[in-house]
Structure formats: structure tokens, C-alpha cells
Design a protein that fits this description.
The chain has 221 residues and is mostly helical. It has 7 helices and no strands. It is found in: Nucleus.
């Protein structure tokens, strides 16, 4: 975020790209020790790559994802209690979504979660400790951006901030709100003129019929 802000500011000041004002790109690492354990060499191509079950709906996955610290905690907790990584993610997800600026209490956590009280207590204490060490308001990362109506009070990222100046998409034909209102007024005036002409036509037709009736009456008299 700060690198992007400095790069944008430098370009506005100097008018060109500076060598020391660039957005850093992470370098690719090699010779990672756990590569072989994640990607073993005896991989075989499966017979079917994509398996579709159109009539069964997948269960909704939690928004929270385990990190390395969570994985260590879950592996330790597995020795004493029955818990899976997905179950732990669902518990943390419900705790995070049930909390606002202040975290929920232990009693409220027992109402949110359906697991045993001992398991809830262990996960709750771990979650409270991790939430206090967290810099952000929530353990679930979220993109900070402005709302279209400007009602949001969050300070958005530079990349997601709305433009202060109004972009001009057309240079020759100006299509703004004033011209749109003029077109609406012209359409309303034309519609009114057509209605008046239609009424004049009906009036003249009635006058012609009245004249024919008057002549017919005079002839019969």
C-alpha cells in the first residue's frame, strides 16, 4: 500500500517513472525443503479430472482459512479431542462473524457453537489470544473500499479509492445531466403538441358534421 502510494506521488511530482519508486514484486523461491512432501514424484494422471454431481449441493465453506499457527494448535488439540481442520475453521468463522468491534464472550460463544463445552473453551481461548495479537479488526481479511454513495467511513486502499476528478469519456459530444434534461423537456413538448393537434383534428371533424346536419335540417324544412 505504501509502495503504491509513493510510486503514484512520485509520478505526479516528477512526471515520469523514477528508478527508486517502483512497486516491489516478490521473487520466486527455489529449493524449498517441503516441496517433495507436497508434490511427490509418483504422481499419476487420474482417469477423470473433473467430477460433476449436478443434483447435490456442496456444503458452504467457511471464509476463514487455517494458517501455520492454527495447524500446530489443531494437531495438538487432536491428541485430546475429536476435531478436524474444517471444523476448526467453521468455529473460528462463526466466532468472527458473531463479533463486532468487541469479541463475543464465552457464554455467547457457547450459543453460537454446537460443539462440546470443553472444545469450545479451548478454541475460544486460542481465538481470543490470536485476536488480541491481530493488528486488524478481524482475523478474516477483507478488502477496504468505499461505497458508491459515499456512506462508508473506512479508509480504502489507494487502488480501490474512487477518483476525485470526473473522467471525460467523450470529447466531441457532451452527454451530461443538463443535456439529458433538455432532451426530456423536448420530448414532453413534442408529445404535448401531438396531443393538441389530435384534439384540433377531432374539433374540426365535429364542426364539419355539425355543418352537414345543419344543411340537412334546412333542406327538410
Amino acid at each position: 500500500e505504501h509502495h503504491l502510494q509513493r510510486a503514484i506521488s512520485a509520478q505526479q511530482v516528477y512526471g515520469e517513472k523514477r528508478d527508486n519508486m517502483v512497486i516491489p514484486v516478490p521473487e520466486a523461491e527455489s529449493n524449498i525443503a517441503y516441496y517433495e512432501s507436497i508434490y511427490p514424484g509418483e504422481y499419476k494422471m487420474p482417469k477423470q479430472l473433473i467430477h460433476i454431481q449436478p443434483f447435490s449441493l456442496d456444503a458452504e465453506q467457511p471464509d476463514y482459512d487455517l494458517d501455520s499457527e492454527d495447524e500446530i494448535f489443531v494437531n495438538k488439540l487432536k491428541k485430546r479431542m475429536d476435531i478436524s481442520p474444517l471444523q476448526f475453521e467453521e468455529m473460528i468463522d462463526r466466532l468472527e462473524k458473531g463479533s463486532g468491534q468487541q469479541p463475543v464472550s464465552l457464554q455467547e460463544a457457547k450459543l453460537l457453537l454446537k460443539e462440546d463445552d470443553e472444545l469450545i473453551r479451548e478454541v475460544y481461548e486460542y481465538w481470543i489470544k490470536k485476536r488480541k495479537n491481530c493488528r486488524g479488526p478481524s482475523l478474516i481479511p477483507a478488502v477496504k473500499q468505499e461505497k458508491r454513495d459515499g456512506s462508508s467511513t473506512n479508509d480504502p486502499y489507494v487502488a480501490f479509492r474512487r477518483r476525485t476528478e470526473k473522467m471525460q469519456t467523450r470529447k466531441n459530444r457532451k452527454n451530461d445531466e443538463a443535456s439529458y434534461e433538455k432532451m426530456l423537456k423536448l420530448r414532453r413538448d413534442l408529445s404535448r403538441a401531438v396531443t393538441i393537434l389530435e384534439m384540433i383534428k377531432r374539433r374540426e371533424k365535429s364542426k364539419r358534421e355539425l355543418l352537414h346536419l345543419t344543411l340537412e335540417i334546412m333542406e327538410k324544412r
